[in-house]
Records
---
Amino acid sequence: MRRMRLTREFRDQYIQHEMRTHGRKNGFVTVGQEARLSKWLPRIGLPKDKRLADADLPAAAPLVMEIGFGNGDFLVHLAATHPDWLLVGVEIYLPGVAKAVCRMDDAGFIERCRITQLPAQFVLEHQVDEAQLDGIFINHPDPWPKVRHHKRRIIQKAFAKLMVTRLKPGGFIKLATDKPDLAEWMRDILDATPGLTNVAGVGGFIERDEDRPHTKFEERGIKEGRISQFLHYVKA
């Protein structure tokens, strides 16, 4: 199977170069993966000038977002275990988007999903309405371990408050990480965020959901001796 980098034409069309983001943007894909991206992104993609409200989704179905979906393993799991949910995937790494699109397509769930390659902050601010989401998942976000890079971590006070505004009453935020310092960072910020209740109690972590799959990143951590911790918050 021949692997190649995404073509310049494709990257120019789908990567928002004017928006500063941290992390990888380009990488290797197969010819078939790029072809399926070209087929599906015009149908299920959310370009920066399009709102989720204009994405032709049934109004009554629960709307759940995964921020940083990687290669799509968890998105497929959510689609398979929650057939009534509509899913919104947020991921800036296009080769990951390519793999996710192929997996969702192969599983028959692709039309229940909308995908954006824009930064999560922009997506929530400009593409999602207030009280529009039923839930948000953030699995194994980049830990940015160096202190000078902590400002790059996705969970910050302002971002936490923004997520709350986009959730319906009773909506949830679920997070996972195998980095203890990041787990405590996220917990401390979210515990202090008005409008959120920690299901495990202030300072607590929940047990692993029984049906939760081991993602690629979690498997990597297990091999290196790290155990994941899980957080669950509900909007009052």
---
Amino acid sequence: MAEEFTQLRKSKPVILAAGLIWALIGIVYAGHGMNYAAEMAVRHNLVEYAELMLFLLVAMTYINAMSERNVFEALRSWLIEKGYGLRKLFWITGVLAFFISPVADNLTTALLMCAVVMAVGGENSKFVLVACINIVVAANAGGAFSPFGDITTLMVWQKGIETPQGGIGFGSFFALFIPALVNWLLPAAIMSMSVPNVQPRGGGKVVVMKRGARRIIALFLLTIATAVGYHNFMYLPPVIGMLTGLAYLQFFGYYLKKTVYREYGMTSRQFRTECSHDEQLGSLPAFDVFNKIARAEWDTLLFFYGVVLCVGGLGFIGYLAKASELMYGDWGATNANIAIGILSAIVDNIPVMFAVLTMMPDMSTGQWLLVTLTTGVGGSLLSIGSAAGVGLMGQARGKYTFFGHLNGHCSCGRPGS
């Protein structure tokens, strides 16, 4: 949490904590003759992390590829050319985040919209901060009413829960649309008052996307569709579809390398001839997908490793189950489900929801939808409370921070400032 003051990357303390927690678990279990119990548990957590890390790695690779092809710069140029002020851009990115996240998941959507905000906002740190907060809230809210928008919603859907009112099927979650919309619109309306209604600087410069940019966008959408299809129709983890989609980009990158001469309006022979005479032309870097992978936000990916293993260790010991049992046993379903949402801002919402599903309290369909909503949007309270917030802290480092998110619109100054 103190990264912006200490300048210590957030991945370092959580990786250390994960190692210490599991070392303590291993020592205790080995001392009781249960040598393989901790090993099996930590391997399970590693598999969960591997799925998450590889999924994010593919998403980040596509985003970096689109950035290299000037997709976001071109969008920035187009938005400025339309004459939109920062306040309109604030609403445009929020609307897009809310309606894209049910399909593309909240993290991928947040990363995409943040790239646009960073391109449009330029050096206006106040606008970037409040726009990133808006994106996190919108992406988390939009992902809550779709099984493919948030992992916790997906977990509830996959569980096949039966209640006295009937089973909770795919269409049941669309009842959360209005609550999710209110959850985003109300904070957005308040925050918009703090956004200066000025024009972004740098207008008039037309940015043209590089060759292949539109096809990379299409391949990214196809990759998302592949991940959804693998999960929905073949019952395989979505990460398998995402990695299949990475192959789409790899093959297209190979095509761009082999046909780079077309970027200069030449034939293959003319390009080879020119390269032999012009050393600068011959040394131009070709599109390389592995360069895009190397530019991924590795600090964020390693932070997720620490979070998954830390929380997994606490869950293995039994703390999460005890907490859930106490809340549902003493507080009642409604109060417990609201508290679960607040807790998900501090402890990752996935193990929190897993603990609830493990306990399987006797609740109505409405209560199950309530806990789905609160765990989905509760992470918006803190920047570290959701994958979208953590991802944006890495992407907009120095501008979108833990305490900046905590202060909300108050830290953004008065309107027009």
